[in-house]
């Protein structure tokens, strides 16, 4: 049972003046995008720093799930939230506004 789900996907150009992104890229394929140039402007699409930071975040989520699975909490009793996370090429991750995920009826 996973208490925290991390949905890592998509790649975007690190150039703030470029709007290139490909949200179909899966996390498993990130190493293929490492240090690749943006097809639109030539800037880096994924730095080693951002890949390392993303991998560290994955490790934190996995550890959190390991700790919580033996805590006695029931996943079905917990609300679900979405927290957007973005990388900018420096290895620093920025976390967006936390929003409650509305249950589909």
Residue runs with pLDDT of under 50 for 5 or more positions? none
Shape: elongated
Q: Give the overall pLDDT as a whole number.
A: 85
Strand order of the largest sheet: 1-2
Give me the secondary-structure category.
Answer: alpha+beta
The sequence of SSEs as H and E is EEHHEEEE
Biggest β-sheet strands, sense, barrel: 2 strands, antiparallel
How large is the count of helical segments? 2
Radius of gyration, in Å, reads 16 Å
Q: How far is the first residue's CA from the last residue's CA?
A: 23 Å
Helix content: 10-25%
Proportion of residues in extended strands: 15-25%
Number of strands: 6
Task: Indicate how many domains the architecture comprises.
Answer: 1
Q: What would your notes on this structure say?
A:
- Strand 1 (9-12) and strand 2 form a beta hairpin.
- The strands form three sheets. The chain has a two-stranded antiparallel sheet with strand order 1-2. The chain has a two-stranded antiparallel ribbon with strand order 3-6. It has a two-stranded antiparallel ribbon with strand order 4-5.
- The radius of gyration is 16 Å and the shape is elongated.
- The model has no long low-confidence stretch (mean pLDDT 85).
- It has one domain.
- The chain is an alpha+beta fold.
- The protein has helices at residues 30-33, 48-69, and strands spanning 9-12, 21-26, 81-82, 85-87, 93-95, 99-100.
- It is built from two helices and six strands; from the N terminus they run ββααββββ.
């Amino acid at each position: 049972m996973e208490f925290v789900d991390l949905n890592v996907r998509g790649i975007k150009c690190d150039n703030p003046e470029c709007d290139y992104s490909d949200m179909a890229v899966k996390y498993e394929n990130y190493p293929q995008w490492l240090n690749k140039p943006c097809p639109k402007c030539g800037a880096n699409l994924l730095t080693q720093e951002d890949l390392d930071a993303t991998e560290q975040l994955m490790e934190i989520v996995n550890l959190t799930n390991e700790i919580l699975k033996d805590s006695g909490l029931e996943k079905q009793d917990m609300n679900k939230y979405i927290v957007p996370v973005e990388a900018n090429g420096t290895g620093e991750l920025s976390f967006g506004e936390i929003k409650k995920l509305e249950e589909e009826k």
